[in-house]
């Protein structure tokens, strides 16, 4: 709807209604333009439901003058957003992979040899592809890059090496990431890519594998279809965690911290909060969860929980877990949290051994901004960890702001049912033993009689069912005019 249409009414509230409607239409245009810019190869009709927008824009002037027009436009915009979200989930993107990054679990010798086999196959079958492996493998005789060149008959040097610092400075350089390991290897990729993340394809080479849905034994069949054709990508939600403290950051000695896991904060952002005595000491983007617990202290944590600056509750216990849908199958699940499908954008708040039994886990919308503050009345410090890394001490008065990150974590989908299959495979979700037959306990005489009775019962049930269906058909014939 144009601005002139909104101003055409003569009602007393036409100005306020026009402002509201223009705000809704601006939101629609922003969403539409976003989809067009981010998915130019998918077509407007597939992703943005262009006919719906045209229908909304061509509404009559009489409708726009009505008092409920703003609410009507609001409902239409919400419905369009749902359709756009569904379209994005089903959309396929065309990858143009030139720089491929491989992340391997290096403390497993077997995986190093599997990485060598994968690199050799890639060099032989994709002549224009540059492969990047971790710099640790550069002088490793087990990897032996020169031997790979010889075996693959590759003349050019197309094996390069990456470091966490290189990834931090060139996060848009890589077109795709392949992980060789388990879920921990995938979390490591999220740690080193703290902002933009390329699509991640994970081979199941770990123990559980909620995030690893591709089998390495099928890589020669799967990779050509992924590298040469369009793929479906699951944009997994991440959490942005901003730590506000009045002291310099302190890292626990028992945790090895990678510098790339801490995002530097611009000076102008450090003053964007109400308490002038605190500043943002670090910002983290987590794929699984942020955990705030009592650490080595003997006292219960005393945490104040705010949602959009509204005081929700005071949590006393061993701590809190704030998890993404991806992280709902990790620590949160062990603490009694609910399973959440990764395509649902939500925030799971799960207490760890709360002091009150009524403090149950809760699922919050992804639009909420949580603030978890160590109470000034707390008898000790709390400790925050981000995807199990970068353990930071929070003193009384310090707090963490948690919101949905603008940098999602895209993973290559193997099947549409991969989440249900993963929880069924790893958790034996809703698996129970069927009722066993005890005919083996019967004597031969009673067993013969039992089989005869069972057969007669089945014949009677089938006859009764056929009679019921024929009776229904006769009734339908009689009712037909």
From TrEMBL:
Gene3D superfamilies, sorted: Probable inorganic polyphosphate/atp-NAD kinase, domain 1, Probable inorganic polyphosphate/atp-NAD kinase, domain 2
InterPro entries: ATP-NAD_kinase_N, ATP-NAD_kinase_PpnK-typ_C, NAD/diacylglycerol_kinase_sf, NADK
Matches recorded under SUPFAM superfamilies: NAD kinase/diacylglycerol kinase-like
An example Gene Ontology biological process: NAD+ metabolic process
Single GO MF annotation: ATP binding
Keywords, in A-Z order: ATP-binding, Kinase, NAD, NADP, Nucleotide-binding, Transferase
Compositional bias per record (Low complexity), positions renumbered to this chain: 1-18, 56-69
Region (Disordered): 1-24, 47-69, 460-481
Basic and acidic residues compositional bias, start-end: 472-481
Family note: Belongs to the NAD kinase family.
Annotated protein name in UniProt: Similar to Saccharomyces cerevisiae YEL041W YEF1 ATP-NADH kinase
Organism encoding this protein: Maudiozyma barnettii
Lineage: Eukaryota, Fungi, Dikarya, Ascomycota, Saccharomycotina
């Amino acid at each position: 709807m144009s601005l002139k249409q909104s101003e055409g009414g003569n009602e007393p509230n036409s100005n306020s209604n026009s402002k509201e409607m223009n705000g809704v239409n601006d939101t629609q245009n922003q969403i539409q333009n976003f989809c067009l810019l981010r998915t130019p190869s998918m077509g407007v009709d597939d992703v943005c439901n262009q006919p719906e927008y045209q229908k909304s824009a061509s509404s009559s002037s009489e409708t726009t003058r009505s008092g409920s027009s703003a609410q009507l436009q609001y409902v239409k915009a919400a419905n369009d957003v749902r359709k756009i979200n569904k379209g994005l989930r089903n959309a396929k993107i065309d990858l143009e992979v030139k720089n491929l990054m491989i992340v391997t679990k290096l403390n497993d010798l077997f995986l190093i040899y599997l990485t060598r086999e994968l690199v050799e196959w890639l060099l032989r079958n994709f002549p224009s592809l540059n492969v990047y492996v971790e710099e640790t493998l550069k002088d490793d005789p087990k990897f032996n890059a020169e031997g790979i060149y010889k075996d693959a008959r590759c003349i050019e040097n197309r094996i390069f090496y990456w470091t966490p610092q290189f990834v931090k400075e060139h996060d848009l350089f890589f077109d795709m990431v392949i992980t060789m390991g388990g879920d921990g290897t995938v979390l490591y990729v999220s740690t080193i890519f703290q902002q933009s993340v390329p699509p991640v394809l994970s081979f199941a080479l770990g123990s559980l594998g909620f995030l690893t849905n591709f089998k390495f034994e099928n890589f020669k069949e799967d990779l050509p279809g992924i590298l040469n054709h369009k793929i479906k990508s699951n944009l997994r939600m991440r959490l942005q965690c901003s730590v506000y403290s009045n002291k310099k950051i302190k890292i626990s000695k028992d945790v090895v911290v990678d510098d790339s896991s801490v995002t530097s904060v611009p000076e102008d952002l450090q003053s964007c909060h109400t308490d002038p005595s605190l500043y943002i000491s670090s910002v983290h983007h987590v794929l699984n969860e942020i955990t705030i617990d009592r650490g080595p202290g003997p006292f219960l944590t005393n945490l104040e929980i705010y949602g959009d600056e509204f005081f929700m509750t005071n949590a006393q216990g061993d701590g809190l877990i704030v998890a993404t849908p991806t992280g709902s199958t990790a620590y949160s699940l062990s603490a009694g949290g609910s399973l959440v499908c990764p395509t649902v954008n939500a925030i799971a708040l799960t207490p760890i051994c709360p002091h009150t039994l009524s403090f149950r886990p809760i699922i919050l919308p992804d639009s909420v901004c949580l603030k978890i503050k160590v109470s000034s009345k707390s008898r000790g410090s709390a400790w925050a960890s981000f995807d199990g890394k970068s353990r930071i001490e929070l003193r009384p008065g310090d707090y963490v702001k948690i919101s949905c990150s603008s940098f999602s974590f895209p993973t290559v989908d193997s099947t549409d049912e991969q989440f249900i299959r993963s929880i069924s495979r790893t958790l034996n979700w809703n698996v129970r033993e069927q009722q066993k037959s005890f005919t083996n306990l019967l004597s031969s005489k009673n067993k013969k009689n039992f089989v005869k009775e069972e057969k007669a019962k089945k014949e009677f049930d089938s006859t009764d069912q056929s009679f019921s269906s024929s009776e229904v058909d006769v009734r339908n014939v009689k009712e037909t005019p």
